[in-house]
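Page 37, continued from 36.
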């Protein structure tokens, strides 16, 4: 039976590939893996699910001689501690894929970023990855579908079967900005839409508007079983990456050990703010799911809030702050519209994590919580400070949050306890 299904998958894939090659008009792509791969992935997932169901008996009902297959088309959207007691998260910040995409230099940076992530994933073997914004440099992408670059950025995590979630930064859906060196002597810019190393067909038309947040997010979600991202409540759009995930106990999937909140701090196609509507959404949501403040909470977004300026070390980083680089001023959101007040009013909120400033990697206490920077992970974007990633490790009993930075060269530094 299973072999029949696997054969069907392969036949379906071959058929789909054949048709893809022979249908002259193909969309840029609704799925960055390509329709055939996407179809194959869905099909393969069904086969594997059946295989798993067959091996451990889950999902099979043998009652009264009938076999009923219960299939999940997507994983349940809660994360869980494994039987050992820690849950580890890696933060990949500011990857900036697609930088100077029309040059040889640009794609080379993406290859290097890929290597950084692969090294850290293999070294730390995290249970979950958070892409903390500026996944791509959309203002360098003169093409219709930035999702292909987005897809490249998540591929090292996907290839290792590690689930992930994403939030938007200020570069992810920015409109294309003409580089000055594209202007010829006559003042007429030359169009470079399909460089040799571009994954796009030559017929692909140029688009300079950028791919909007919603499209990027939907593409990621629809094409990836391991994505825990969400396009958030409609009433908050065009602010898209607003959602919450539960990390459950190893013994009971209903029992939360921590909540992870994701907020869209704007930038790109609209102002760099967390709006009062988002702050209200956070208040309502947190009150609804964690009314007695019993469950610890952590918050992730891209652009630091103004509160980061208040706690920033002046020159050297010293206690109570912990970190290794303090090379620039905090580039904060344009205005504070209430989210920080909502956070400090909840004793359950332990820490906020942001990216955006590539030259900062510290954590400092603010009121009763911690404000942390991630670490510049990508070779795209400004700055030549060595690349790395912030790691967060949660333990269940007793509950604790430990964090450190793992560098591309394998070294580890800036360990700090964020739960005390
Ligand atoms: Zn950045």
């Amino acid at each position: 039976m299973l072999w029949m299904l696997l054969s069907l998958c392969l036949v379906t894939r071959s058929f789909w590939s054949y048709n893809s090659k022979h249908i002259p008009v193909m969309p840029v792509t609704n799925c960055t893996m390509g329709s055939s791969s996407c179809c194959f992935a869905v099909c393969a997932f069904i086969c594997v699910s059946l295989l798993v169901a067959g091996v451990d008996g889950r999902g099979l009902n043998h009652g009264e001689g009938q076999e009923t297959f219960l299939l999940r088309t997507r994983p349940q959207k809660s994360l869980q501690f494994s039987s050992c007691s820690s849950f580890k998260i890696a933060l990949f910040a500011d990857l900036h894929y697609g930088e100077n995409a029309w040059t040889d230099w640009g794609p080379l940076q993406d290859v290097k970023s890929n290597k950084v992530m692969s090294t850290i994933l293999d070294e730390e073997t995290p249970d979950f990855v958070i892409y903390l914004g500026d996944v791509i440099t959309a203002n360098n992408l003169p093409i219709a579908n930035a999702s292909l670059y987005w897809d490249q950025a998540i591929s090292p995590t996907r290839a290792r079967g590690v689930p992930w979630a994403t939030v938007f930064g200020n570069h992810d859906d920015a409109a294309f900005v003409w580089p000055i060196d594209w202007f010829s002597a006559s003042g007429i810019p030359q169009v470079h839409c399909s460089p040799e190393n571009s994954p796009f067909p030559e017929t692909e038309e140029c688009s300079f508007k950028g791919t909007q947040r919603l499209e990027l997010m939907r593409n990621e979600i629809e094409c990836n079983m391991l994505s825990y991202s969400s396009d958030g409540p409609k009433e908050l759009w065009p602010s898209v990456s607003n959602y919450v995930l539960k990390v459950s106990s190893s013994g009971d999937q209903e029992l939360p050990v921590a909540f992870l909140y994701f907020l869209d701090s704007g930038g790109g196609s609209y102002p760099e703010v967390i709006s009062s509507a988002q702050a209200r959404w956070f208040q309502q949501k947190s009150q609804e799911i964690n009314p007695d403040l019993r469950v610890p909470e952590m918050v992730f977004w891209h652009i630091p809030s103004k509160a980061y300026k208040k706690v920033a070390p002046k020159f050297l980083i010293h206690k109570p702050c912990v970190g290794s680089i303090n090379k620039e001023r905090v580039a904060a959101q344009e205005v504070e519209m209430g989210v920080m007040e909502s956070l400090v009013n909840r004793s359950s909120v332990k820490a906020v994590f942001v990216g955006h400033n590539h030259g900062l990697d510290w954590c400092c206490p603010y009121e009763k919580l911690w404000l942390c920077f991630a670490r510049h992970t990508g070779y795209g974007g400004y700055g030549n400070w060595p690349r790395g990633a912030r790691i967060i490790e949660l333990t269940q009993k007793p509950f604790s949050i430990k964090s450190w930075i793992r560098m591309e060269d394998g070294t580890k530094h800036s360990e700090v306890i964020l739960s005390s």
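The first helix runs from residue 2 to 22. Flag for discussion at group meeting. Residues 231 and 240 are 5 Å apart (CA to CA).
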